[in-house]
Design brief:
By secondary structure, the protein is of the alpha+beta class. The protein is built from four helices and six strands. Strand 3 and strand 4 form a beta hairpin. Helix 1 packs antiparallel against helix 3, helix 1 runs parallel beside helix 4 and helix 3 runs antiparallel to helix 4. The longest helix has 40 residues. The protein is elongated, with a radius of gyration of 22 Å. The protein starts with a helix and ends with a helix.
Length: 184
């Protein structure tokens, strides 16, 4: 692969990675510790990820169990979960916090599927913007470094191939996540 394409492919790969990270935070009726990734708990004045101050495990398919290393953090973690947009009610016994995931309704599944599609479209737009930036850079390069029009056309064709490949990957990710959400 041409060295001039590598930086653009890295950006496209990063767009797909960001999308998959976002998909990880969408709950599908099953317990997934990754839904806690974006939450930060005030740990002695520092916003800290829950996974860094507690053990998080999945004892049952629809339950997360959070066991803080310091008992004083139970209330803090519980408060963070309640004020988040997860829509879950934590229960605690003073030592362990449990999050029970309710079964998703058909309506909620369809809502999530729309959300998945919307996030996927945003990722596709990001990839297309990267393609546009690459093509602009190649045109400028052609003026500056006296590169032939054929070579620029070839670079643009290669960027288009990369774009097509990453858009197909995004479509596959959307399809997989939608199937996961719609499976009862």
């Amino acid at each position: 692969m041409d060295d001039r394409l590598v930086q653009y492919e890295k950006k496209m790969i990063k767009s797909l990675g960001n999308l998959q990270e976002e998909f990880g935070s969408i709950r599908a009726g099953r317990a997934n510790p990754h839904i806690l990734d974006k939450l930060r708990v005030d740990y002695y004045g520092t916003p800290t990820p829950i996974q860094q101050i507690a053990n998080v495990n999945v004892p049952e398919p629809r339950m997360l169990q959070i066991q803080p290393w310091e008992q004083t953090m139970v209330k803090e973690i519980e408060k963070t979960i309640l004020t988040s947009d997860l829509g879950l009610n934590p229960t605690n016994d003073g030592k362990v916090i449990r999050l029970v995931f309710p079964e998703l309704t058909e309506e909620r599944r369809k809502e999530l599927a729309k959300d998945i599609k919307k996030k996927g479209e945003a990722a596709k737009v990001a990839v297309r913007n990267i393609r546009r930036d690459a093509n602009d850079a190649f045109k400028k390069l052609g003026k500056k470094e006296d590169i032939s029009e054929d070579e620029i056309k070839e670079l643009e064709k290669d960027v288009q191939k990369l774009t097509d490949k990453h858009i197909a990957d995004i479509d596959k990710a959307i399809e997989d996540k939608t199937k996961e959400i719609m499976t009862v």
